[in-house]
Every structure is written in structure tokens, then in C-alpha cells.
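SAMPLE LOG
Freezer: B-3
Tube label: C17
Construct: single chain, 386 aa
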Amino acid sequence: MTTTRTLPRLLTLGAAAVFVFAACTQGGGASTAPGGSGATGGGTWTPDATRLTAAKTEGKLTLIAVPRDWCNYGAIIDEYTAKTGIPVNVITPDAGSGAEIEAIKTNTGEATTPDVVDVGIPFGPVNKDLFLPYKVATWDTVGAEDKDPDGAWTTDYYGVLSFEVNKQFVTDVPQDWNDLLKPGLKVALAGDPTLSNQAIQSVYAAALSQTGGSLDNAQPGLDFFKKLNDAGNFVPTIAKLGSVVKGDTPIVITWSYLALADRDATKADGSADIAVVIPKTGRFAGKYVQAIAKVAPHPNAAELWEDLLYSDDGQIKWMTAPGYCITSRFADMKAKGTIPADVLGKLPDVTGAVFPTGPQLDTAKKLIVDTWKSVTGVGPLATAAP
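STRUCTURE (predicted):
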């Protein structure tokens, strides 16, 4: 994969905790008014002057779990620093969702406490009380289903689960989930299904392709992976781009935006010929959530960061290759014609993708985490070399 955060969006059950609230009184505090002016405008984002002055006194912005090659974050970070003059410190870029929550929970100091988290949707609403409410400048253009009404969290982007296939080692590229059961294939996940949000949702997605499977019944997904393991097709290794290129994990189930970025990177350097397949059935979409920590050491810098992300400029950068992320303002921007045609044309076809509700996700997560080993016979997964 591209950088998939060692344990992509790590899950830790019972992660909710009470935070230290001291930082709430810093700078802009718990602002719920829409953010700075000029946050829209298709590539012309300008930071709010008053907030920028306050942010500069804070000195920096601290992020966590945002690798530069995940959703084009590198380009967004560069723009933020160029427009604000504020340096960005990224701690543990490969951290997962649970680790992000733990980082703000433990609040170990300015150098190691993130201002902002970008976590899987199961970690958004459940941790509402741990976040600093803030409504970005483009708040009114984000759908009600994609934001907390008080501004505690806002969904940011999504992808659909796909098959990333190295065609050097797989001549008959699978087009649907049951194709993965064909003899001789080697299939891996991008995380451990007892820990990783991405991997758990991969099992959940497989359920949708099987008889009896639905958003209310993830059991057939577990049964599918038992079949895959019994057939000798499942590789008990967390896939990385290096293992895909070498053929150790020539097929990996991963988010579409990561697979597409890997396809482009390997085409550019000639290391592999990767196909990205959105399966015919079991099209499962997974959203992520932005939130500012109540213990944010640099709350004004964090608010500027959020304004950039949800401006037309930030949204387009998330969508632009190698980002390929479909954003929370996608429908609004498409209707207004503010997405460049070349960017729009490169996004994957996700027609028919389904979005589970929070309670459905929680139920599926508990089932998969609790019974993965007993149902599939697969223990903890090893991690492939990068």
C-alpha cells in the first residue's frame, strides 16, 4: 500500500475517556461561529486575519496520523505553511484511530499532544465530548448527516474498499469478492481485523457480497474469510506496498484512494503494474472524521487548518491525484461546478456504495473483533516490510 498507518486507523475498544480541559481557554477557545472569511473560492483560500494573528502566537500546528501520501495531505500541509507561515509538526504519521484518541487522552505535553485528529467514523460521535466544537467557514455546505450539530466533529472524506492487484503475479484479475476464492490467489488485508478500522470494514464489506449478509449482519463476512483461509488463499500478513510489488501479497483489500495512489506511484517508477478494482458487489464506503482536541495546544492554528481542509481549495486537493479521496462537500461542489474536470474524471466510480450507520458499525465491529480468530482460525497478523 501507500502509507497505510502501520495499523490503519487502529481500533481500541473503550477508548472514550475524560480529557484535561485546560487548553480550552487558550486562543480562540470553543468557537462555534463559522470560521474565517475567504475559506471558499476554489484555490484561493485566505486565512482569517484575526485568527491567523492568534495562531502565530501559538507557534505551530501539531497533527497526528497524516502521512504526506495519504489523501494528498503533503500538498495540503505545504499550502497551510505557505499561506500562514506556521510550521506543521506531524507526530506518529502511521498511527491509527485508537492511537490518535489515546494521544489526546494522555495529553503528555505540547510536543506530543495533537491539535487535530482524523479518525474513522466509529470514533467521531462516540467521542464528541472530547472534542472542541468548531464550525468551519463552509459549514452550511456540509450535509447534516456529515457533521455534529454543535460542531464537535465533521466527516472529511471517504473511499470504498477495493482490490489492489499486482498484475505481474495475477493474470486473471478478480472482479468480485467470490473471485478471491479461485485457486492459487494470495489475498491480504491492510491491517489486523482485531485492531484496524480498515481491516474490520473489509470483513464487513465482504459480508455484503455473501448470501444473508447485510449492514445488519456481518457474520457472512467472517465466514467468507474462513473460506479464504481454508482454501489457502489468505496471507496472514498486513500488506504494504513493498509486499504488493514483490508479490508476497499481490492482492490486498484496501481503500480505493490508497490503491489508486499506489497504482500511480508504481507506474511512475516502473516497479509494478497495479490494477484497482471496485468489486461488483459489497461496495462499502467508509468515512473519516475531523475533530479538534479539547486539549489542543494550538487551537487557533487548528481552526485555520480545518478552514483550509473544508475550503474549496482543501477539498480539491484531497480529491486530486494522488489523493483520490471523495470529500464531504463533494456533492455541493459538483453541483456548483467547482471541481476541475480533470480531477472529477479521475475519481473512482462508487455507484451503489453503501454507508453503514453508527450503530451498525458498532455492532459489526464488536462481532468481528471478538470472533475473528475463533471463526477464521487466523491469529494475529504479521506486518510486511515497507
